[in-house]
């Protein structure tokens, strides 16, 4: 192929490329006049090739980009290779669009051509970029919104935490303010009953005791529900006998059933485990509430407590307690709501039978915490059946050894009744020295009386500072106290401060916290301060006796470090 033929092929190839290109290519002289343009100028700018020729390139540039274009032209004169710039172009009809312009100076400006310019349409790219920018901006806004929401959430959580803390403190204070006088009411009524001989006086005292016990139960229910809601509720699972729990409940409520002329019956299978792992106090609380309700809402007939075993699989065994009655029953439409707080079958139930509607709510929550469930079946005017199901651990397979020989009785003639005259015969030792610390004179007098009946020598103090002074004096005189009963909320110096001070001085005498605060956190607070054990007011004599007896036999003497 000759050189002429080669040039002809190259010219033809270049011409075809220019015609096929979607980019707009133009040749511009030194004044900026368009000398030639590709066919694509018509599609992109709306100019025909003929009309575009003779126009100044600035006609293709938007007014907003003219200053940028002028700077670009000057920069392009000093470069051998063209560099692209993004700017706004203008069509023949005046509309504008985004473009990428590349200007390249011609090395040998023959035929008046000074620059070759290439316009590339960036409209779609700009749209995509704009969408991307919008998306990024929305993400930024979302992130800012999330940060704002997170801040609001943390602020709300802080408010909730402060509210829960205030609620907890309120409940603790309410517990203290209510339980302290209730301790005096119930305690002194016990003393009055002990020394009263008249039948009418005995009946009046029993009325006081029954109503005081009812009020205390309402207080306990409210506190327990509040503790569960705040997550401040714990259970203590131990190995215990389910039939012993059952017997204690039956013994407690048999007199009430007999007084109403009701038969309180029990049935159980021989396969009942001799021991299970649960919280016996909470299980007893649930069963007691169910039997109490059955007695309350049954006017004639009987109440039956049935205990049986069932198994869903060899590893999933269920212990089931069912309390059935022949009482008034519950309407079908009310069955789903009776476990809601403050709810009863209807408003007349509260008027006729009393109650707050908290017992069943609390019972279900307690059973759920124990790992079981509480359900109900009922027919109006025929009675109800409440069923507690507990899932047993795989190793709880010891069966009741004495089988059906176990008898339930209202009272056991072989057991001692600590509320009768025999209470006077109890003694924990030979006049061990006890320090009783409480800021309420009535409580000091009551507990002094109870401790004296145990044969104990009691000294008292009205606040923590007096207690510490007496203990330090006793240590100096080598006449240490054997046990300290300490209220925790007192003026001048609290029980918490007093116990911490004693422990710092390495005084190791057992300290039993006797406080009207009843939350789990209060118990942990007492133990953390250095108390040996904890009792919540009101305290029954047998509970106090057991606690005192538990710590006195060790005769833990004071050891003062003089170093």
Task: Write a short abstract of this structure.
Helices cover 45% and strands 19% of the residues.
Fraction of helical residues: 40-55%
**H/I helix tally:** 15
Please indicate the percent range of residues in DSSP E strands (runs of 2 or more).
15-25%
> Terminal Cα separation, in Å?
118 Å
Shape call: elongated
Low-confidence stretches: 347-351, 397-429, 554-563
Let me know the largest β-sheet: 5 strands, antiparallel
- Structural class comes to alpha/beta
Radius of gyration, in Å, reads 46 Å
- Per DSSP E runs of 2 or more residues, the count of β-strands stands at 17
Task: Give the averaged pLDDT, no decimals.
Answer: 81
Across the major sheet, the strand order is: 2-1-5-4-3
What does this structure look like?
The structure is a single chain. The protein is of the alpha/beta class. 45% of the residues lie in helices and 19% in strands. It is built from 15 helices and 17 strands. Strands 2-1-5-4-3 form a five-stranded antiparallel sheet. A five-stranded mixed sheet has the order 7-9-10-12-11. Helix 5 packs antiparallel against helix 6 and helix 6 packs across helix 10. The protein is elongated, with a radius of gyration of 46 Å. The C terminus is likely disordered.
């Amino acid at each position: 192929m000759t050189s002429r033929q080669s040039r002809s092929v190259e010219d033809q190839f270049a011409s075809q490329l220019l015609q096929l290109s979607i980019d707009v290519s133009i040749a511009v002289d030194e004044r900026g006049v368009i000398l030639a343009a590709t066919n694509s100028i018509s599609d992109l700018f709306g100019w025909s090739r003929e009309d575009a020729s003779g126009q100044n390139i600035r006609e293709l540039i938007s007014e907003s980009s003219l200053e940028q274009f002028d700077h670009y032209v000057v920069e392009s004169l000093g470069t051998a290779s063209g560099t692209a710039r993004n700017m706004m172009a203008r069509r023949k009809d005046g509309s504008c669009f985004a473009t990428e312009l590349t200007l390249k100076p011609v090395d040998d400006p023959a035929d008046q051509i000074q620059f070759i310019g290439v316009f590339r349409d960036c409209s779609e790219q700009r749209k995509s970029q704009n969408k991307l920018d919008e998306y990024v901006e929305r993400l930024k806004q979302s992130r800012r919104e999330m940060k704002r929401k997170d801040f609001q959430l943390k602020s709300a959580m802080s408010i909730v935490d402060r509210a829960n803390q205030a609620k907890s403190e309120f409940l603790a204070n309410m517990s203290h303010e209510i339980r302290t006088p209730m301790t005096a009411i119930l305690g002194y009524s016990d003393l009055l009953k002990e020394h009263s001989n008249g039948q009418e006086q005995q009946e009046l005292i029993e009325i006081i005791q029954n109503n005081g016990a009812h009020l205390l139960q309402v207080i306990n229910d409210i506190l327990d529900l509040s503790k569960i809601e705040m997550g401040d509720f714990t259970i203590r699972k131990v190995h215990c006998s389910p039939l012993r729990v059952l017997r204690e409940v039956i013994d407690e409520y048999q007199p009430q059933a007999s007084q109403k002329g009701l038969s309180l019956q029990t049935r159980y299978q021989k396969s009942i485990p001799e021991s299970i792992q649960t919280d016996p106090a909470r299980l007893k609380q649930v069963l007691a509430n169910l039997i109490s309700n059955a007695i309350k809402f049954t006017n004639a007939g009987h109440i039956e407590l049935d205990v049986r075993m069932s198994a869903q699989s060899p590893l999933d065994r269920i212990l089931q307690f069912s309390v059935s009655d022949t009482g008034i029953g519950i309407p079908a439409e009310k069955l789903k709501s009776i476990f809601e707080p403050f709810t009863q079958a209807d408003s007349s139930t509260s008027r006729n039978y009393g109650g707050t509607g908290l017992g069943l709510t609390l019972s279900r929550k307690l059973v759920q915490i124990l790992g079981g469930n509480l359900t109900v079946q009922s027919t109006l005017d025929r009675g109800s059946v409440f069923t507690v199901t507990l899932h047993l651990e795989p190793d709880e397979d010891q069966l009741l050894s004495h089988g059906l020989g176990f008898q339930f009785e209202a009272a056991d003639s072989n057991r001692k009744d600590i509320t009768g005259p025999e209470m006077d015969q109890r003694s924990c030792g030979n006049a061990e020295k006890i320090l009783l610390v409480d800021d309420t004179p009535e409580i000091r007098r009551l507990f002094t009386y109870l401790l004296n009946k145990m044969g104990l020598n009691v000294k008292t103090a009205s606040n923590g500072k007096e207690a510490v002074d007496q203990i330090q004096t006793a240590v100096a005189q080598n006449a240490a106290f054997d046990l300290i009963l300490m209220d925790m909320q007192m003026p001048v110096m609290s029980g918490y401060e007093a116990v911490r001070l004693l422990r710092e001085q390495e005084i190791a005498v057992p300290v039993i916290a006797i406080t009207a605060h009843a939350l789990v956190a209060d118990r942990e607070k007492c133990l953390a301060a250095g108390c040996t054990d904890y009792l919540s007011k009101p305290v029954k004599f047998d509970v106090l006796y057991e606690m005192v007896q538990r710590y006195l036999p060790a005769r833990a003497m004071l050891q003062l470090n003089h170093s």
